[in-house]
Amino acid sequence: QPKCSIKMRKVGFVLYPDCTLLDFAGATQVFTKWAAKGWESCWLTAEEPVCGSEALTPIQTSEGVSVNPQYSFSKAPEDLDVLFVPGGPGAAVKSAMDDTRYAEFLRSNEEKWVGAVCTGAFIVAKAGLLRDVEVTTHWQFLAELRTMAKLDDYKMTVADGHPRSLLDKQRKRFTGGGVSSSIDLAFAILLEIEGANKGCEHDQKRALKIGNSAALMLQYEPDPPPGIARGNPVDHLLDGITDELSAGTKGGTVGPIADAVAELKQKSSKN
Predict the structure, then answer these.
(1) pTM for this one?
(2) What pLDDT does residue 237 have?
(3) CA-to-CA distance for 29 and 12, rounded, in angstroms?
């Protein structure tokens, strides 16, 4: 059997001020030549270089760590295969939702794989790119996503439970659960794209080899110590903590996204 075509794959992470570090750092680690042979990634920003300089302004994450994007949207590589949007705190996500540069950039690449992890789903949805797609997000924001999913301009189906990764192969869209889900989501994307040619046995074997090689290089084996739950809100070990966290963040973290969805609902009702 002849070998099937092999090409370099590129992932662009669409960053914005105060986005969450692990949302893109974990997935970036998967999409590297060091881990996944034939893959590479880059960080993108909406900001252009300061006049008289080629340097792009560093982006500070919600954890206080600043990272250096390699490209502005206007200079993004044309051969990107995937656009991956991280999540972030409510105010940061609402700001990106309100910034038309993000929606315009994502829509200009709608023929590619486009999606998000965590609350980044709201940014991609606002661009209209998750319409008719089954989606998920961080467990604290599912109610807001369900509200948005009912609006005519953004019709979506919110998945039951708390899946860590969801892919719509026909529409080339993806979403993931909260924060650490970015790593699982990255592996799901890698396996789907590498093994997209279902009729090619070589592609299928290569996809698994690349995925398993990356897992080995990352020593990917989630195994929390005794007494620490796996982060699923329905885990009995988290009884009481889930409600406490929800109550403590409704105004701060969730509030701005709830406000953004309420604004979209109000606009929809007027049309």
Answers:
(1) 0.93
(2) 60
(3) 13
